[in-house]
Design goal:
Elements (H helix, E strand, L loop, with lengths): L3 E5 L7 H11 L5 E5 L2 H14 L3 H20 L5 E4 L2 H9 L3 E4 L2 H4 L13 H12 L3 E5 L13 E5 L17 E5 L1 H6 L3
Parallel strand pairs: 1-2, 1-5, 3-4, 5-6
Antiparallel strand pairs: 6-7
Helix pairs in contact: 2-3
Length: 191
């Protein structure tokens, strides 16, 4: 079974919902991979770039490292979660029955297919990873319904804090509101 890729937004950092989402995701009865947002760590990169005047290339690398930092925070919050830095490590963690929290820096800093720009977000890196994993679904857990176009995955869903009270343990199905279903899927009627 292909894993669900779940981006846990940095906007949840410091809110009670962060731990609630971690607990829900760790209870899943199906394989999933958590992708951290940058949260307060990425915010600091933005502030520091203005003050210190470093390049967008440097800021891009630092923002990805901010995702690593928030991922470490997430992973320590539940015994089911384990950090993973590569596809091989993701598969090892899943094979051991745990839930990987992807730390993207090893795979993405300097990757030829990822531009060095603030246009590249943790959302777009989640879609990139979903493509690498050939995942069928991407779930964005955010505090907003804003989203971009994610053509690399067949189905995109978004979930916010209001959904938490409706979820049951263990998590047995993909939560969230479907935002986009890739046209090929709609045309063929495949699920």
């Amino acid at each position: 079974m292909k894993p669900l890729v779940v981006k846990l937004g940095g906007s949840t950092a410091g809110h009670a919902e962060m731990q609630r989402w971690i607990d829900v995701l760790a209870s899943a009865t199906f394989p999933l991979v958590i992708v951290p947002g940058g949260g307060p760590f990425a915010d600091q990169v933005r502030v520091s770039q203005k003050r210190l005047g470093y390049s967008d290339d440097a800021a891009h690398a630092m923002a990805i490292l901010a995702m690593d930092q928030f991922g470490i925070v997430i992973a320590e919050r539940h015994r089911q979660l384990r950090v993973a830095r590569s596809i091989a490590q993701i598969n090892e963690v899943l094979g051991a029955g745990s839930t990987p929290v992807w730390l993207p820096s090893w795979m993405t800093i300097g990757a030829a297919d990822i531009p060095c720009s603030w246009e590249i977000t943790s959302d777009s890196l989640s879609a990139w990873l979903a493509g690498k994993l050939r995942a069928d679904n991407l779930l964005l857990v955010k505090q907003t319904d804003e989203h971009g176009h994610y053509a690399s995955v067949p189905t995109l869903r978004v979930a916010g804090p209001q959904l938490l009270d409706k979820l049951e343990f263990p998590l047995a199905s993909i939560p969230g509101r479907m935002i986009m279903r890739h046209r090929h899927i709609e045309a063929t009627g495949a699920q």
